[in-house]
Amino acid sequence: MVNVAAKPATRRVARASCRVRLHPAGGALLRAAAGADVISTARTAGLEGAMRTATLIPLCHPIRLDAVRVDVSPAEDGVTIQATAEAVERTGVEMEALTACACAALSIVRAVSSVDPGVRIDDLVLLHKSGGRSGTWDR
């Protein structure tokens, strides 16, 4: 684990995204009556994932998150997920934003895999980070 004791606590923000690609049968499942529950559950999974990042990722600092937002939007070929994590800390929140996306995506995979065994998660990427010594970075 990297020693962050000498770093000042600054406002840190990170935004990440990913896509869950579905075949037409998987997309139909999301658009059906249960679709809202799948989206809601994915959002909750993302929030929980962000809050538990330090227990899921080895050597990741446990931090106190000030805010986490997970947006799950149905798209033509699946679902787009975007997560933003914020904290005033000595280390960044990139892993929390990425973990939120991954957990939300895995929740959707679990929900549709019986209808769409070809479901896949694509393009898990960091889009933005700010705060700390390295300043702002945008993809």
What topology does this entry show?
Elements: E1 10-21, H1 24-31, H2 35-51, H3 53-56, E2 67-75, E3 78-89, H4 94-112, E4 120-130, E5 137-138
Antiparallel strand pairs: 1-3, 1-4, 2-3, 4-5
Keywords:
5 strands, 5-stranded antiparallel β-sheet, alpha+beta, 139 residues
CATH superfamily: Molybdopterin cofactor biosynthesis C (MoaC) domain
Which topology does CATH recognise? Alpha-Beta Plaits
Main sheet, how many strands, which sense, barrel? 5 strands, antiparallel
Query: What structural class is derived from the secondary structure elements?
Result: alpha+beta
**SSE pattern, N- to C-terminal:** EHHHEEHEE
Give the C-alpha Rg. Answer: 16 Å
Helical fraction: 25-40%
**Order of strands across the main sheet:** 2-3-1-4-5
Measured by DSSP, the beta-strand proportion falls in 25-35%
- Domain module count: 1
CATH class placement: Alpha Beta
Subunit organisation of the chains: single chain
User: Which architecture would the CATH scheme give at its second level?
Assistant: 2-Layer Sandwich
- Helical run tally: 4
Low-confidence stretches: none
Q: Please, what is the average pLDDT?
A: 90
Q: How far is the first residue's CA from the last residue's CA?
A: 26 Å
- How many strand segments? 5
The best one-word shape is elongated
